[in-house]
Amino acid sequence: MIGDPDVSGLVEDVRARLARTPGELGPHRVADALRAAGRPVGDATVLAVYEALRRDVIGAGPLEPLLGLPGVTDVLVNGPGPVRIDRGHGVEATEVVLASEESCRRLAQRLVAGGGRRLDDAAPWADVRLPDGTRCHALLAPLAQPGTAISLRIPRRGGFGLAELHAAGMLSDAGVELVRRVVDARLSFLVTGGTGSGKTTLLAALLGAVDPGERIVVVEDAAELRPDHPQLVGLEARPANLEGAGAVALRDLVRQALRMRPDRLVVGEVRDAAVVDLLAAMNTGHEGGCGTLHANSAADVPARIEALALGAGLPREAAHSQLVAGLDVVLHLRRDRGSGRRRLGELGVVVGAAGGLARTEVAVAFDTAGAPSAGPGSGRLRDLLDGSR
Questions:
Q1: Hey, where are the domains in the chain?
Q2: Share above pLDDT 70 across residues of the chain, in percent, rounded to a whole number
Q3: Is 162-385 a CATH 3.40.50.2300 domain?
């Protein structure tokens, strides 16, 4: 195992020796390097060292076995020590161990380079998409403590449908029926929640329930949404290259998407100036627009939108008026403490308030068992679902 101190020591010794002489990595070269170092050269030792070195130069290196484990959504490196994973029930340690800060840094740099970016002391963090679709974020030590931090977000192959989310406990019977009605009524909506609450998962399932005759254009910073839909067009932003040129911003892609005859415009994650263009799109006849947004509750959404819009130069009053006119529903996800279960917590509606501001009223709240209860916004939701906007 890569975390075995004896094997790790052999690996570092062999790596240093192989680096001094060019050639293909293979068991024979590993055996020769072990002999030259006066180390044991049994078949098991040679193969263990060879496999450790081979994993270190292909795919995700020592993290590769974790990426294929059933249900894993995140692989996390917090400097040297055990690597951790999340299978939807909270973070847990694994038997994969990174022995040193040097190995963490080397792995982070190789992963980021695979995504076309640079990672060094001059550029100590990066967010890239790997060739297999995995999203990788890395931050070097000493900015990250106790060592270089790597976060891998793994896209689920094939995606979840609403039926699977119901089976997993994210949606109750009432929740499935309600979100289906939101999609069928072509309401504009945001899926909100904290990090790891399942926003992208739920949004992908909802897009999979869209009428097959509708054209969906999805705009994302890094391609994560993989809904099962026959008319899906994905646009992905691009960071600057090593020379600092060639960047394509999310906001620019939102504008391009509006010219592509979308029946539904989707912004995978609303977190910057692109919110202005999304609000504008929702107010120009593009029904059913949607996206995800980090927020602590449905009630916090207007404040989050306002902050993002102000950063883009849109005045407060204009942001709130466009929000009231363009956004219908907020689907807020929670993650239960202890069990780590992700679930739909509440559904809110956006209404006008005093002074021309927007506020979100809870229309339906779901308890931990998924049972619904009506809130003050239930009448407004009923009108929206019945087509009385």
A1: 1-57, 61-154, 162-385
A2: 89
A3: no
